[in-house]
Amino acid sequence: MARGHHWRPVWLAAGAWLLSASASAAQPYAGPLFDAHLHYNDEACVHDAPAPGCPHPLSDVLARMQRNGVRAIIANSRPNDGTKALAQAREETRAAGVTVVPFIRLYRDRADYNNWFRDPSIAELVRTELTQGTPSGPYRGLGEFHLYDSANAQGAIARELMVLADRQDLAVLAHVDDEAVEQLMQHVMDARQQVRSDLPPGRPKTDQPPWGAATREAVERGGPVLIWAHTGIGGTPVARVDELMARFPRLMGELSYRPGLTCENGQLCPDWRALILKYPDRFLIGSDTWINQRWLYYDGLMQGYRAWLGGLPPEVARAVGWDNGARLFGLPDPGERP
């Protein structure tokens, strides 16, 4: 009995060492990457300006993606001109092997970061962009948008855009805290409940004017996907992230800038590793090229992801690195296997 008592911690310590050594010795993930949080803002390129106004032309940013095995991106830019430029460059993106998934950014300029949720013209901007689409096809989502105060998630514009995303099958990329995640998802649930409560007695739920076919289909789909930018950039505890993942099956976590994500040797910290293994189909990676410095470090960012993805089981690494984003937007398998 005493012998077992002494051997148990030694065995556990040895097991922990082996796991640590295995993780540090793991080969980097070598499969395709889906960059689910990419900006091509006007700091990087004002597209109708001469060369000094475009330090990162399309040839530069696509080369960075190509050499890092980034095969698809969620493009959202301030203003939306950057996203349209990427969407329009179909020959160039095809040559680089990059698929552009365009999102509508709510920002015309930096002033909109702190005012979009109280500005009705932002909702009009979104509706206009949805009508016009992009040179490569329709927009697939809204955001990234910021709510620095979660109380602003209760505003009329935030509510309107979440319901619009639900009706038109748009994903949402939101830089918010955990309380705002709940409130944004609640807007959709409230709107859906309103649809159901408006049904006359005996009428099937799938045949209810004035909402129309788009809303009926949305109710049947299960709600919009909310991509939580940074999965809590303020350091939301992992247990709270777990709680929200369990509560909202359409919540996905994007992992750029996430504090506490990696530990020794650039591998996942134990609590994050356990969470990703618990929800392997719910996480995405992203570059968040919000300033030009992030473009300069793009290679390092992608290499960092490949390092910790390599410490995961191969099927989980592939899911987080590529499959989850590709499945969300119906992209074909590029055929690259690690």
Please tell me how large the radius of gyration is.
22 Å
CATH level-3 fold name: TIM Barrel
CATH evolutionary superfamily: Metal-dependent hydrolases
User: What is the CATH class designation?
Assistant: Alpha Beta
Structural class: alpha/beta
Could you give the order of strands across the largest sheet? 1-2-3-4-5-6-7-8
Quick take:
The protein has about 350 residues and is of the alpha/beta class.
Structural commentary:
The chain has 338 residues and is an alpha/beta fold. The protein has one domain: TIM Barrel (Alpha-Beta Barrel). The chain has 13 helices and eight strands. An eight-stranded parallel sheet has the order 1-2-3-4-5-6-7-8. Helix 5 links the parallel strand 3 (99-104) and strand 4 (141-146). The longest helix has 24 residues, at 2-25. The relative contact order is 0.14.
Topology:
Blueprint: H1 2-25, E1 33-38, H2 58-67, E2 70-75, H3 81-88, H4 90-96, E3 99-104, H5 120-132, E4 141-146, H6 156-167, E5 171-175, H7 178-197, H8 212-221, E6 226-228, H9 238-247, E7 251-254, H10 270-278, E8 283-284, H11 292-296, H12 298-309, H13 314-329
Helix pairs in contact: 6-7
